[in-house]
Design goal:
266 residues; mainly alpha; Probable membrane transporter protein; TSUP/Inactive_protease-like; transmembrane helix; cell membrane; membrane
Length: 266
């Protein structure tokens, strides 16, 4: 195993660690790890990301379900519309995008490059939210205890489209939505987010497996390390303030996003 591959597999632990601590965020690292560390093509990297994030989150959510931290009614409201947009985007939208995406004279933007630019933009927005602390609202529209089911369903559609396009679980968006629009306490929002991410990711992955060849000898060990990471993250969440870790992680995500953009431009 080369030093670069060692770094890549070690990063799998970080992916699970962040998901376990904060209910999301770690998944936004999987595509850059696959593309820039392991040299996997962008479209395949998004497929791998969905499997890793889905499996890791599912294992983590079992503990939350057993402790009755997951709000199943809110999950159903948010997840059903999300399932539809994820599956349709992975099954039809992403494969149908032209390659190159557009061309002007001698300049051509390849589909894979466009997805990486979009991914980097999402990373910058997520990093900004993590650094500013805006992903930890205390109350919002549902502070009166009455969830805004219509708003949750619409947001589920939007998050599903994002997940289907770039292969990220969207936990950095789901957690604040569950607090603001469902009125969930933070610990229940994090637990519910992990479960939603798991199911969303598997739905997106199901839209891919019909036209994608997978290297299970690579994918399963990486996923196993990520699962170890989520258990570490859930353990540390009992002792370490997640806000402080998320702020540091936000700066790291911002640095990775800037690296991605500079790498693609150059």
């Amino acid at each position: 195993m080369s030093g670069q591959e060692f770094v890549g597999y070690a990063s799998a632990l970080i992916v699970g660690l962040v998901i376990g601590l904060a209910g999301g965020g770690g998944s936004i690292l999987t595509v850059p790890i696959f593309v820039y560390v392991f040299g996997i093509p962008t479209m395949l990297a998004t497929t791998y990301s969905l499997f890793v994030v889905g499996t890791t989150s599912l294992v983590g959510s079992i503990n939350h379900i057993l402790k009755k931290r997951v709000d199943l009614r809110i999950t159903l409201t948010f997840a059903l519309p999300s399932f539809i947009s994820i599956y349709l985007s992975r099954r039809f939208l992403v494969p149908a995008l032209p390659d190159p995406l557009f061309q002007v004279n001698t300049f051509a933007l390849a589909k894979s490059d466009a997805i990486l630019y979009f991914f980097a933009t999402v990373m910058i927005l997520a990093a900004r939210a993590m650094i500013s602390g805006s992903t930890r609202p205390e109350q919002g529209e549902a502070a009166d205890g009455h969830p805004r089911y219509g708003s949750l369903a619409l947001d589920g559609l939007a998050v599903g489209l994002l997940t289907g396009t770039i292969g990220a679980g969207g936990g950095f968006l789901i957690v604040p939505m569950l607090v603001l629009m469902a009125g969930l306490p933070m610990h229940r929002a994090v637990a519910t987010s992990v479960f939603i991410i798991a199911v969303n990711s598997f739905v997106g992955f199901a839209g891919d497996i019909q036209h994608t060849d997978l290297d299970w000898n690579f994918l399963l060990p990486f996923t196993g390390l990520s699962i170890i990471g989520i258990f570490i993250g859930m353990y540390l969440a009992r002792f370490v303030p997640p806000d402080r870790l998320k702020k540091g992680f936000g700066w790291f995500v911002l640095a990775v996003a800037c690296y991605m953009i500079s790498r693609e431009v150059m």
